[in-house]
Amino acid sequence: MVESSAISRLIRAGLVTGVTDGLFSSVLAAFFYGSTVTRLFQGVASVLIGAAALDGGTRTAALGVLMHFGIAFVWSAVFLMLVLSSSWLRGVLAAPYGVIAVAAVYGPLIWIVMSVAIVPLLNFRKSFSIPSLKITPLTGIRDSIVKLFWLFIIPAVIPV
Fold it and tell me: pLDDT for 36-85, tens place per residue?
């Protein structure tokens, strides 16, 4: 059975990650892409239910928010399992700047797996995009830099 401190770590990491990433994504959508927060989360829901999500209003946006938090909890759970099963990883996290070092690897790994594998596979397409958002190489780089900030959250919250 999983101890209660592990469960509280997972809950804390999942919630902090979901909220922080949701805020960063919302700012990017509204201020850099000229879209809306509703459209952003409809785009998330479109991975599951297709393009009809973009016409689904608040209901599909709410589904997108639920999916977003589900993904935050899944990646937090993966990291927690890694921490609990690896004394080497716990040692790295305990070292000076260890959280930053681990986050510098784990954060981009999440972004790459989600952007290059998971979302395209679920959408049956070759590359990633969210409909109505203007994705260019420059915005992709900017998004990567901004997203790296929140991706430091999981390794920072789990060990505490």
Answer: 999 999 999 998 888 899 999 999 999 999 999 999 999 999 999 999 99
C-alpha to C-alpha distances, 35 to 1, 95, 131, nearest whole angstrom? 45, 42, 10
DSSP string, 70-120: HHHHHHHHHHHHHHHH-HHHHHHHHSTTHHHHHHHHHHHHHHHIIIIIIHH
Please, is 48 exposed, middle or buried when counting C-beta atoms within 10 Å of its C-beta (0-12, 13-18, 19+)? middle
* Helix and strand numbers, DSSP H then E, in the chain: 8, 0
Q: What does the block give as tokens for 46?
A: 């479109």
Q: Please report, for the chain, the start and end positions of each structural domain, with discontinuous segments joined by +.
A: 4-157
